[in-house]
Amino acid sequence: MITIGNFNTLTIARRTNVGLYLTDGENDVLLPKKYMPENVEIGEEVEVFIYLDHEERPVATTLDPYIYLNEFALLKVNYINKYGAFMDWGLEKDLFVPFREQARPMTLNNWYIVYMYLDEKTNRLVGSSKLNQFLDNTNITVKEGEEVDLIVSHITDAGINVIINEKHKGLMYKNEVFEDLRTGDRIIGYIKHIRPDGKIDVSRTKTGFEKVNDSAERILEALSKNDGFLGLNDKSHPDEIKIVLEMSKKTFKQTIGVLYKQQKITIKPDGIYKI
């Protein structure tokens, strides 16, 4: 079965003046001539992305779009008309986001996180910036401490809202993030806490002992790059520690305590020294 909005492995059925016709054994789809791979023969398999052309017919391409079916991505608005917005997703035909699927009115040339789905009524690929309807925090598939893929969805006073593994929504607290993150950034994070109401707290660093290990490696690496000395100690200002090591003062104090006990550093009034 040919799947619209995703890559499909299809067999070359025949060659024509306009391109190759590919088949899954039941249905055929055109791969236009400009996308034809070189030196291919009838009966060979090719991997192509399937979407709908301007006449709403399935068509194949070897281009790799910016978003796949049932996934999220940061896309730019190319055009707006009385029906909605049309977003650049790396293919000839823009992705349509109707007004009813816009969390707030989209504006030309601006970027938005959208989800692409197949409209069952029209059998068309459609985008939506109303993200919550595609995220489920009732059937949670992650556990505390687990490494996860994150997409930054939006940033508020409460914190940095993220999409977890393309399935759940979570929150990172601003005072625990020591880097400049923007909407659409794809990063690795860790599940810090899952609340009884289904809300998920996320961290950029590992939790517990693994977090200390990561922080220890970062401090030792910084010491090595600075001739074995850092002008930081438990009296240093939190902002100074954040700038130099991208970690909180609490984590820094815990970690240098562990490194001191392991006899890997010495702590003096002017800073820490690598042994």
Q: Summary?
A:
By secondary structure, this protein is mainly β.
Would you write up a description of this structure?
- With 275 residues, the chain is mostly beta strands.
- It has 3 helices and 18 strands.
- The model has no long low-confidence stretch (mean pLDDT 90).
- The radius of gyration is 25 Å and the shape is elongated.
- It has helices at 208-225, 238-245, 249-261; strands at residues 7-15, 19-23, 28-32, 45-52, 58-61, 71-80, 84-88, 95-98, 111-119, 124-128, 147-155, 160-164, 168-172, 186-194, 200-203, 229-230, 265-268, 271-274.
Q: Unreliable segments (pLDDT under 50, ≥5 consecutive)? A: none
Q: What is the C-alpha radius of gyration, as a whole number of Å?
A: 25 Å
Quantity of strands, as a count? 18
Q: SS-based structural class? A: mainly beta
Number of helices: 3
